From TrEMBL, chains A, B, C, D:
Top EC class, one word: ligase
Catalytic activity: L-citrulline + L-aspartate + ATP = 2-(N(omega)-L-arginino)succinate + AMP + diphosphate + H(+)
Name recorded for this polypeptide: Argininosuccinate synthase
PANTHER family from the UniProt entry: ARGININOSUCCINATE SYNTHASE
GO biological process: argininosuccinate metabolic process; L-arginine biosynthetic process; urea cycle
Matches recorded under NCBIfam families: argG (TIGR00032), PRK00509.1 (NF001770)
Binding site residues for L-citrulline: Y90, S95, N126, R130, S182, S191, E267, Y279
Binding site for ATP: A10, Y11, S12, G13, G14, L15, D16, T17, S18, A37, G120
Protein residues bound to L-aspartate: T122, N126, D127
Domain of life the protein comes from: Bacteria
Domain Arginosuccinate synthase C-terminal, residue spans: 181-400
Gene3D superfamilies in the cross-refs: Argininosuccinate synthetase, chain A, domain 2 (3.90.1260.10), HUPs (3.40.50.620), Single helix bin (1.20.5.470)
Amino acid sequence: MSDVRKVVLAYSGGLDTSVILKWLQDTYRCEVVTFTADLGQGEELEPARQKALALGIKPENIFIDDLRETFVRDFVFPMFRANAIYEGEYLLGTSIARPLIAKRQIEIARATGADAVAHGATGKGNDQVRFELGYYALMPEIKVIAPWREWDLNSREKLLAYAEKHGIPIEQKHREGGAPYSMDANLLHISYEGRHLEDPTAEPEASMWRWTVAPEEAPDTPEYVELTFEKGDLVAIDGERMRPHELLAKLNELGGKHGVGRLDLVENRYVGMKSRGCYETPGGTILLKAHRAIESITLDREVAHLKDDLMPRYAALIYNGYWFSPERQALQALIDFTQQTVNGWVRVKLYKGSVMVVARDSATDSLFDPTIATFEDDRGAYNQKDAEGFIRLNSLRLRIAAKLAAKRRR
Amino acid sequence: MSDVRKVVLAYSGGLDTSVILKWLQDTYRCEVVTFTADLGQGEELEPARQKALALGIKPENIFIDDLRETFVRDFVFPMFRANAIYEGEYLLGTSIARPLIAKRQIEIARATGADAVAHGATGKGNDQVRFELGYYALMPEIKVIAPWREWDLNSREKLLAYAEKHGIPIEQKHREGGAPYSMDANLLHISYEGRHLEDPTAEPEASMWRWTVAPEEAPDTPEYVELTFEKGDLVAIDGERMRPHELLAKLNELGGKHGVGRLDLVENRYVGMKSRGCYETPGGTILLKAHRAIESITLDREVAHLKDDLMPRYAALIYNGYWFSPERQALQALIDFTQQTVNGWVRVKLYKGSVMVVARDSATDSLFDPTIATFEDDRGAYNQKDAEGFIRLNSLRLRIAAKLAAKRRR
Amino acid sequence: MSDVRKVVLAYSGGLDTSVILKWLQDTYRCEVVTFTADLGQGEELEPARQKALALGIKPENIFIDDLRETFVRDFVFPMFRANAIYEGEYLLGTSIARPLIAKRQIEIARATGADAVAHGATGKGNDQVRFELGYYALMPEIKVIAPWREWDLNSREKLLAYAEKHGIPIEQKHREGGAPYSMDANLLHISYEGRHLEDPTAEPEASMWRWTVAPEEAPDTPEYVELTFEKGDLVAIDGERMRPHELLAKLNELGGKHGVGRLDLVENRYVGMKSRGCYETPGGTILLKAHRAIESITLDREVAHLKDDLMPRYAALIYNGYWFSPERQALQALIDFTQQTVNGWVRVKLYKGSVMVVARDSATDSLFDPTIATFEDDRGAYNQKDAEGFIRLNSLRLRIAAKLAAKRRR
Amino acid sequence: MSDVRKVVLAYSGGLDTSVILKWLQDTYRCEVVTFTADLGQGEELEPARQKALALGIKPENIFIDDLRETFVRDFVFPMFRANAIYEGEYLLGTSIARPLIAKRQIEIARATGADAVAHGATGKGNDQVRFELGYYALMPEIKVIAPWREWDLNSREKLLAYAEKHGIPIEQKHREGGAPYSMDANLLHISYEGRHLEDPTAEPEASMWRWTVAPEEAPDTPEYVELTFEKGDLVAIDGERMRPHELLAKLNELGGKHGVGRLDLVENRYVGMKSRGCYETPGGTILLKAHRAIESITLDREVAHLKDDLMPRYAALIYNGYWFSPERQALQALIDFTQQTVNGWVRVKLYKGSVMVVARDSATDSLFDPTIATFEDDRGAYNQKDAEGFIRLNSLRLRIAAKLAAKRRR
């Protein structure tokens, strides 16, 4: 056990991180600094302060920050410029939040002179990687403590016994078996893993979903929403400009009301195993669809295809925790370069779980030219005869090969 | 005008290709062979025979083929093994049918000793490219006639006047202004382009859609469907084995009933312009979702990512008409190699326009290992301590760079 | 034949473009503006002025520009940041010069109020595409005249007869059959195509090569050269800072002396055919090798791999003439982003046709850390035990699959 | 320390693996099986048997196999079909040998009922990863012992002391400081790392290189060699058919004589650090050049580009040790598919360190069509006018964007 003087713990105020807090004090005999972030998870944060104080943390060692605007502006929005989806389905809601938490922990470590950081992620998941790659990229000499990989409290019973023994308050739900799922929430999504979901043939219980109504319960009338984009980022909803996190919160409200954004999948973790997860990403689902639509009229074809070719790689980088890597930054430079012309608006229709784009336009950057595309007489905007040469030369290599093949058959 | 002796025309029996038939006879003074394919577009084909006869085609020069099974087994299914989507949205329903038509035309040309082929696609679209790349790849010396690029019948009025003059029967709808949209249908989809849709801000009229009910009109009760896959191909629905085209027809019926598979987008054509299109792909939408789900438990992570990285390229090849190219075949060799283990079943829930995967399993090939993924005690199946070394080495390059950056700042 | 008022011709002063000049005057009855560029091809340009005057071009319509510095700084160097090679071998010497010529022609067209541009590239090659894509990207309404695709002077005899008839001076070499090869030269390379080379089994004659001595004739003593890089660009040779084109000229001199940079290959043209070409790129060959070497110690691994993955695509864009396309610019944004840390020096050894890197270092940006890499005791800089977890988790998916395969076999 | 009954050790007979042998016996108290492979490293293997016997290994536990043919046919040649190069330079000589050793070790483990395998690679290098990924992919339950990560013999002194103490014979060279470099050799290459080379600014000593003469010492007369390929594999040299390993040995002899294939570079290891390495790959350097040349006339352009795009990924997989992974196999399926037409011959010229292709042809599969490529009159094989339409449509998106940009500027 290495020597630790002061550790900054990512602290939610829940049972697990409270036990970690105590365990750090006992095991490392070090000063603990707690850091609790508001990323829009929809929980009160002040109770975390009270719990930390009760566990002996000095007031000046308790950090509670509202990171919602930063989260959406500097992490979620840049990622959506790339249309990032992991494995064809997952919108990376948890993945994109971890680097921000890591970054803030390191800032606090520097501010408080701490020499270590700790988190409550297990040794089987992706989050440990995302936290720790962030720590190391920002402060390579930092000492990282991952209690779930170190201690022997590897069952719920042992954890509760430890809490009991050390006077950590245990809510009734924990005594009754704890949350039925492992959950993570922020402004972009809420996720569910574990327990019942570990059987990939079992449909999630209706009661699991928290942010969206069931499509069956959604309004019988569709709702139209207009999203305005500037340089690839959402800036207004139905004409009303808001700050980034307010926009995403508004989209969540709209999507949630219409049952948009539920997802049930088996994904491949970076640590090498497959895992079942369920997600609700109401606002993000709308945003992705609309962003693709505004790009469809403002991006050049080859630029769009280049982005599509690189997207899975970009998404995997974020999934795997490489937000602060130079390769993510290089890809971001390319992506951001392309978004200069992504200005305009998109109208979507929300209805019982689906999002459909029905209109899109750009006053300044539309590359859609109806005078060329028209089935009607285009008055010479496009010379159909050009197509013959285009096809003749594009087929030249195929024709040469076919002639050779014919000769070979003879 | 080059010398043509006998031409095989892709003939639908409609007004346009009837005018083309006549125009070919008049312009090239050549024998015309008509070819009409059943690709599941849902139209009677026998009327095409009567029309061809009426236009003077010899009975032995009229070819009407049911290509539905070939279409789905040898074109649609191989494409779905790749999870192909063009520009994030389009399921390539028209693109995948053209090569088969081209192939059959060439076979008929060989069988009848024809020296030319003709099609009814315009000089602005993708279909001319898809047809002609197919022709050239299969019979490089063939003469290709694309009347829309040659003649001067470049308005509806001129076309009708020509038909009138040559005694080609004109249905009432044409006199009233013709179809409100340009449509193309086959077992995979129906597409709409032109007219009203040329304004990308105009939502399609409700009356346009033909294959799917509006989600608003779909049943109030969700329906569960189970799809069984073998080597990446659908082989049974709800346990009932059917032939490929029967399976896709069944999925279309199910999807259509639940309003699944409508799409409204602006896409980038190979000839260089953007165009608005609307599509209904009810069965294909379900199939893609389910195929990804069965892959999610049977494919290795890196294989899945490799496929994802290559998918946009594969999709663009098909969109652009390169089905018979060696690069498509090389990619297909890779894709087919990966599908050996893609065996199992997927359960989806259809409801008012949405498809949700709720369960998936494989008796023989599941790589999902609950003993490793579990949040509970795994009895040593996975050593959480391994994660530390994994993260330490994955971060090594980041740590070295961060140390250098810190030194540089000093 | 469309109406043309004034045309800017890319004019070398040679026989072919002199005939074109005359043909343009006769055929289009338009004013001709000549543009002759010094790209370091090593020819006197003033004779071109005399010839243009003799053909009746007004003095104010004759443009002769020294573009050497721009060429190397704004075209060659950005391309070398990408380590661009086409089809594993070709350093893109001709490809990279065409966009600059096109750009300058368009500038002159704007300055002189011309409504057309013309070039002397044939209808079979890549250069026509590179010129014209440049023209269209920079001035979409410009009229492009490509005489080789229009006229009927499609044999050497007809061309000479035309020249004779119109009083265009014909050098003796043309009367004797013309140049044995089609050549193109600029500061980056000289290329040879055609004639004897059209047989891909025929070795080029020793007399063909112009810029490099035969390795057999090169000095018997190796020469060491040190190249200094800043942000990925060469800035000094053996410690002497020079301007970009001076540096490349110096490298050409060094490489030429030691027989470096000869290449004989069959390449795939954009228009669809294969063609044999020979190239001498003495300076470029040294530069590429050295640039990779300085990157080897200053670039992050994943950034380097990302660049390698994208390089063939970038090279094909340049080969095909898409320098002014948004996708090339987006890739350049990524590439340039990565070059911020590419600072340092490289020592190479030149000897009888080969370039070998023997040393490289960076005072500010070396990521090479001997304390970690050492085979000797590293005093704890690297914990070898980390490798176990790294391997265990990287193999997890392979182990799961192998277990399943074993179970299946049973 | 886990329980081990019998371990198969990759045993070279040298000091290090002899110490490991003894250490395994002492530490694990287990039976040791030795495996020594002839991969063409050019060393006698029988001394390894004597040493093993002397260290108490039972005769039936000593395996000495000649794997040269398998190595070249099933590992080297498939890799060369891909034109694999790591980081633009390295021909993967060590990387490609490790999987075969791992495979044979596992076969021996199965044959002898061993429950563990061991190797002599350190915890800092790539080889540990390559060995162990192989072991785990082929026998996931195997116990892996990597002594260099476990023991405390982490200096040369301790190792010698251990050998001395246990009666392991120590050659004089070890007493004098050991080999000046860490070396690895097989039929494809010999590599040098460590010591003097740990300074990336220090040129290797002339005495280091073992397989190639210095270019300065190479013959003054160039030598021409003709290589014949079938399905992408070398089958004959100068018309003489030989077995794969004989062919590679012959190429090594030719390359070595002419000073071909020396390389000095800094590479990025999979474990995260940069390291300096020098390599001699005489035959491989010739083979790669020739393979690209035969592909240049027999492969379709887009297939060649697809291979180029995927090559760095394939090379990294091999470098990182993923030979037995499904993603490498999927890529191989694509690559092998493309090689069906790669038949023909290539003539290269070897001279003082350089390899130059001077001729190439294929009687059956050449796609080079001189009637089309010719600068002379092609009698209509190619219609130059086609190029206009080709360029017009390829530039359409650029023209639309340029028009929009012009409008925006106004």
